[in-house]
From TrEMBL:
Residue ranges, annotated region (Disordered): 1-27
Pfam family, one: DFP
Family: Belongs to the PPC synthetase family.
Source species, domain of life: Eukaryota
GO biological-process terms attached to the record: coenzyme A biosynthetic process
GO molecular function, one term: phosphopantothenate--cysteine ligase activity
DNA/pantothenate metabolism flavoprotein C-terminal domain mapped to chain residues: 191-314
InterPro entries documented for this protein: CoaB-like_sf (IPR035929), DNA/pantothenate-metab_flavo_C (IPR007085)
Organism in which the protein naturally occurs: Candidozyma auris
Protein name: DNA/pantothenate metabolism flavoprotein C-terminal domain-containing protein
């Protein structure tokens, strides 16, 4: 009797074509950089709590409002150089793009998870929290009481109403991070939770995440002391390219929009295209450090480029470029959702 058929097979090579082992084995397939990263770096202690709150937020909108959810990342990241951190490396981002975009997502009917660098700008309060817009300048004293300066009151009322509406409708969920490690862990957890709403999730990755970090295995516990050489040499590693994982396994059905920041105009479009072909996501918004508040370019995987620019008239009316970016992104998101629908009915 022939041996019972096995319902699995192995990938063992046929004896006649077997690899000549005398030359030594191929290296065992290694973990990806992201896997190594998560194995060798601890999750922030508060992560479980944030996961629980995120689940509730996502569940609420999935069950009650049916809104799409935009996960907006915003602000810079710090790269600590010591465990008890006295020194760290940081970057310029104040979170203006992220905070402003979050407001326009809310206005365009989205619920927003705002994953932001702690103490960077927040939606709505950003109008009064920056050093050039100190909230105290909006106040006056009258009859021993504090009042809003009538000059600004109308404008403030508009912002206040929008802010309260976002709160009342439970449409804005604020989640802070500080370090690259906290950012990566939180993004990973949230994207997995957002799988619940499939294509209705949109990632808008505006945070300026550091490309380099100091692995925890090499991080000194205490403040770095003066060196005999008189120099401080810092040996950083490359932050793993997590975007690929986000696209192919953490949030495979979500629409993913990343930003590409350059300072040299001549390489911006090429770098945006490279990112799209490398990570296989849906949209890159390119911007230059110098002109980021006045123009951006939206680049799609099929090579289309759409510049969004503020006109002189827009600028004089204080139009914010995000008020033009978000409807364009929303439109692309709608196309993305439709393309999935067509796939599933085909
Ligand atoms: C951006 O390009 C944002 O638009 C800015 C916004 C950080 C320029 P602000 O906070 O600035 O409003 O002052 N964000 C993404 C920057 C980035 O690090 N992108 C990575 C890259 O360029 C890809 S994820 O390689």
């Amino acid at each position: 009797m022939p041996p019972p058929q096995k319902n699995y097979h192995t990938a063992a090579p046929e004896p006649e074509t077997a690899i000549d082992r005398s030359h030594g084995d191929f290296p065992v397939a290694g973990d990806s950089d992201e896997e190594v990263y998560f194995k060798t770096h601890k999750a922030p202690s508060y992560l479980a709590e944030i996961e629980e709150q995120t689940k509730q937020f996502v569940e609420y909108h999935a069950e009650t409002t049916g809104k799409r959810i935009a996960l907006v990342t915003s602000g810079g990241t710090t790269v600590p150089l010591e465990n008890n951190t006295v020194r760290f490396i940081d970057n310029f981002s104040a979170g203006t793009r992220g905070a402003t975009s979050a407001e326009y997502f809310l206005e365009n009917g989205y619920a927003v998870i705002f994953l932001h660098r702690e103490f960077s700008l927040l939606p709505y309060s950003r109008h009064y929290s920056h050093t050039t817009n100190c909230f105290l300048d909006y106040m006056i004293e009258k009859d021993n009481k504090v009042e809003i300066n009538p000059e600004f009151a109308d404008e403030m009322l508009v912002v206040l109403r929008k802010y309260q509406q976002a709160q009342k409708s439970n449409s804005l969920f604020l989640v802070p991070f500080t370090t690259v490690n906290q950012y990566l862990y939180t993004l990973k957890s949230m994207s997995t939770i957002l799988q619940r709403i499939h294509t209705k999730a949109l990632f808008y990755l505006a945070a300026a995440v550091s490309d380099f970090f100091l692995p925890s295995s090499r991080m000194p516990q205490h403040k770095i002391q003066a060196q005999p050489s008189g120099k401080l040499v810092v040996d950083l590693e490359q932050v793993p390219k997590f975007l690929r994982r986000l696209v192919d396994s953490w949030a495979p059905q979500a629409m993913i929009v990343s930003f590409k920041l350059e300072t040299d105009n001549s390489i911006l479009i090429k770098k945006a295209k490279d990112a799209l072909s490398r990570y296989q996501h849906q949209l890159v918004i390119g911007n230059l450090l110098q002109s980021r508040k006045n123009e951006v370019v939206i680049v799609t995987p099929n090579g289309e480029q759409e510049w969004i620019r503020l006109t002189e008239e827009d600028k004089s009316k204080k139009v914010e470029i995000e008020s033009l970016i978000i409807p364009a992104v929303k439109h692309k998101h709608e196309e993305w959702m439709k393309s999935w629908q067509q796939k599933s009915t085909a």
